[in-house]
User: What shape does this take?
Amino acid sequence: MNNKLLRLTLVAVIILASATAFFSCKKDKHTPPTMTFKTGGVYTSADATVGMNDTIIVGVTVTKEEDPLNTFNVSYAYDGASSTTTDTTETLTNNDQAVGFSRDVQIITRNVAGTETWTFTATDLDGNIATKSIKLTVN
Assistant: This one.
């Protein structure tokens, strides 16, 4: 009987230790950069209807959260296309990388009616991504 009790106790200890190890493991949750659009004045900060060959300004502010910032990318897709074309890519350095940055992006719409989706993406050194898009309906 003592041998049976010893085995049951050992099994219970193994189950308890396994459960404790399993539930105490945390997934690494990383915080991506924060991205906001500038508003007011000359800035377009939401979906809009604009003219052909129109010039708009989108102001973007990105703040480092957990890891230093790495890149800033602006891309676009026309008429609902699923793939995008890169307009600009910037590798960040110095204070832009360590703290954050602001950029004013000038967009000149094409001379064709349709839609343009402009996507702004900031990536930190750990690969966390912040992204925002604006859809322009061009008439």
User: Anything to note?
Assistant: The chain is about 20% helix and 45% strand. Strands lie at 34-37, 48-50, 55-63, 69-78, 85-91, 100-108, 114-124, 129-138. The chain has one domain: 34-138.
